[in-house]
Design a protein that fits this description.
Two copies of one chain form a homodimer. Chain A is of the alpha/beta class and 513 residues long. The first copy, chain A, is built from 16 helices and 28 strands.
Chain lengths: 513, 513
């Protein structure tokens, strides 16, 4: 077209995203092959330290990790040790959750490397130390949906996400398994990490398995990744997941599970195309087995199963009893293998799963959820975070998200565990509000939330014996008595947030014996 | 835990994303089933007009569409007619591309509904009218990668995206095909629409096929979608895609294709694990056939094929000669069906495909790309946008993106088309800079860019006869003479941007005969 001047272009100043005049010199045409380029990818850095430097991490920033490697995770400790060695201080640590293996964080807190923690839960020595007042700032607990919501609304801003991945190509396509070899660590879905990858300012993938480009399908796309570090081992496979979640043989749990399946059937929700999520825990997982025979008898199929996916769900799926699996977290190797091989087994993000900011989120499409509890009170409030001694030993997870979303929310639990009552007058810590829980199923009886009289009527009509939550609590009290009250100091060590970020409860420091 | 006050929480004001105290009254626990909720989903709106109102669209905003329905698209015209009827004016229209079927836009431009256009290309009456000075503001042309880059850097802000989808569930999971029935429209990948869905302020899905939740796998997740409208027909299947792209029988094209395959082999790039993209056009598609036998002979496989995917690529993939297909746009039904059924056939976004902001983008991992051209000049600059009469009749597409990314960029074209030379002294419009093109293959000879002397040497060593681009141009001139120069006015009607948004050329108004 011949020479032109930018100023000749009419309305040039009103045209957005138009830059300066093209300059040939800006183009660097390379001649190397894909293989050569893969070896020299600018995203590949030689060490965690160089990655930390490259991200620009500095005092006071917020960093995140995912917990898909559960108690086999080496990544968080590895990165935190390096950060500490570099002298960076006052960080906010915002992983999707914390487990026993993360005990070394105690030292990093004491040394001022970590100032604050945001997490879904914590266990073990770290949780005990925090319950005894280790930190100046209270830990903020969020549900999986609440965390996604905080991230996507930019109320919680992650400066750097360090995300372990069982496979990654030299340009950043990462996944929770590898199709190139079957020997490495495998965690299945990377659902919780997806939000971090999308929204964090800088994203570092830590892997022990660099595979050829393109690592497709991918859980995290290259376009979300800034740097990649290869390390010897990202985790201990045996701590990450076992072969299959086994069915419980505990007779009490089996009674509860069968009863829960009967309640589901009696509720009228077990119709063709229903949707379901099962929490973890022996009784709640065993419900699947009893539902299976009911589904076979009725000749009906579920449209989808959601959540942490286990081998028991995969088994129903592979028998054609469930059409689709939406997987935010794979709980065992059977689930992970199904994710690899079954195209209707879909990896979903925490936002897709449970964000309260999204009316289409999957939890809102649940007909039925079966959940566990550490404690549940006569007003149906649930505690999944603190033990009977007041010490933190659990995680909110997706408990309150699914309870709110499902139209039938069932909590299964034994009346007592050892000498500890599960049904109490008032839970120690509220993590899931009673308004969102419909039925309690124990081995000693079923209680329906008085807010749902129509449900109680339907259950009774269909042969379920229903008592009140008070009756269950009294039975428990008769069996084990009233436990000594926990003694706390005034200091608040934890804040329990509800899905929208509001404060539903606080956790106080337990008093020394 | 008993009563607490927010003010009791230490450092409460330093904790981000902590809201007010939890209020039970905010929870609305619903009791309806998934089926009942699906019918009443708040995202489902009864008409396009109500969706436009719901998005808050008003004068001066920017709206977008995708062109995966090609010349069978009903969505853009349907929505624009409604917008015009509502009296909204001065919009910027920013679809991923425009085709002949979008001729009705002429009236919307005349009536002031559309003030500006940003697109990859245009054809037919609309393009002719714009070339003759229809618009006051010049049209901004962007490559697929350049558009993704402008969107993700927020330099181009889309207020409302109206995205046609062959299937969508009541909560917004949308895809380019349906697994629930096989009768509807099918377009395969929705790669260009993914960026719009992710970044537009409001997203409306227009579909003629509401399927049960969850529509999984999905091209666009529910979390990116605000509203859904069901209409009678979103497009004409025959205009969207045909059964399979047929191999050319044109002898000239076959000579060019075979020669291009020989050049690829001679370049030394045809080694195990190579990567490739084929442009559209008879000769470039036919290269696949000749490559196939070379790959069989050598016993090598490609690691991936990229881009607009055709049945010919699928055929190699299904024979095991290509390991993975990365699909930003499915060119025919064979490609779309493969996307549905093959798990290593992966749907990718325009950003993943070609954004210059991302060093890991797939075009940067290409060993080989074979491209077509309307014109190419002796300095290897390519024109894919304007015809020999100076009128707009094409699209930049991924041409300059792949040319820059691939380590071997081959342009295949006949020396002349009818009485029109293809090899010229200076192209009418530069869309792809000569620095990024390595080889020209015509039926009359092969020219290598003088910027690549080592490549020329390798080709000669391996038996390819190489001439200069000037020799090719002179041959063309001898055959058809020098065409009469095009006469333009001074008015600039189009701006051609390079990948980064810089202005590489302008298009002027053609003078009336």
């Amino acid at each position: 077209m011949g020479p032109f001047k930018l100023n000749d272009i009419p309305h040039i100043n009103e045209l957005p995203a138009i830059g300066e005049e093209f300059r040939d010199t800006k183009i660097e045409k390379h001649t190397s092959s894909l293989k050569e380029r893969s070896e020299k990818s600018s995203k590949l850095l030689p060490s965690i330290r160089e990655a930390i430097i490259a991200t620009g991490l500095r005092d006071g920033m917020t960093i995140s990790f995912h917990h898909h490697f559960r108690n086999g995770d080496y990544v968080l400790n590895m990165v935190m040790d390096e950060i500490a060695a570099m002298g960076i201080k006052n960080l906010t640590l915002a992983p999707s959750s914390l487990l026993e293996i993360h005990e070394p964080l105690i030292e990093h807190i004491k040394n001022g490397v970590i100032k604050r923690i945001e997490t879904s839960g914590m266990r073990g020595e770290l949780a005990t130390a925090i319950s005894h007042g280790l930190m100046e700032y209270p830990v903020v607990f969020r549900s999986h949906g609440g965390r996604a919501y905080a991230i996507e609304t930019r109320r919680m801003r992650i400066d750097v996400a360090f995300l372990g991945a069982p496979s990654c190509d030299p340009f950043g396509n990462a996944n929770g398994y590898s199709r190139e070899n079957d020997n490495g660590v495998i965690c299945g879905s990377m659902g919780y990490a997806k939000c971090d990858a999308q929204y964090a300012n800088k994203v570092v993938i830590i892997t022990d398995n660099i595979v050829p480009f393109p690592n497709a399908p991918f859980g995290i796309p290259e376009s979300d990744v800034d740097f990649i570090v290869e390390v010897d081992k990202i985790g201990d496979p045996s701590g990450i997941m076992s072969g299959a979640t086994r069915y419980t043989k505990n007779p009490k749990e089996l009674i509860i599970a069968e009863c829960a399946a009967n309640v589901i059937e009696a509720s009228g929700k077990l119709t063709d195309g229903f949707s379901i999520q099962m929490g973890t825990g022996g009784a709640s997982l065993a419900v699947t087995r009893f539902l299976e025979s009911k589904m076979q008898q009725k000749g009906i199929k579920a449209s989808f199963a959601l959540g942490g996916i286990t081998g028991s769900m995969v088994s129903l799926f592979e028998k054609g009893l469930i059409k689709k699996l939406l997987d935010v977290q794979s709980f065992d190797l059977d689930a992970a293998r199904s994710l690899i091989n079954n195209r209707f087994h879909q990896q979903i993000s925490a936002s897709y799963y449970a964000s309260p900011g999204n009316p289409g989120s999957a939890v809102n499409q649940l007909d039925i959820v079966v959940l566990s509890a550490l404690e549940i009170d006569t007003d149906f409030n649930v505690n999944v975070l603190t033990g009977s001694d007041g010490v933190i030993r659990g995680a909110i997870g997706g408990h309150c998200d699914t309870a709110a979303g499902a139209s039938l929310t069932i909590v299964v639990c034994p009346l007592c565990r050892g000498r500890i009552p599960t049904i109490v007058k008032s839970v120690n810590t509220i993590t899931t509000p009673g308004k969102t829980v419909d039925v309690i199923v124990t081995e000693q009886g079923v209680a329906v939330n008085p807010r749902r009289p129509e449900l109680e009527e339907t259950l009774r009509k269909n042969g379920i014996e229903v008592c009140s939550s008070q009756e269950l609590q009294e039975k428990a009290e008769k069996m084990v008595g009233i436990p000594k009250p926990i003694r706390y100091t005034d200091k608040i060590v934890g804040i329990v947030t509800y899905r929208d970020g509001s404060v539903i409860d606080v956790i106080r420091q337990v008093e020394e014996e």
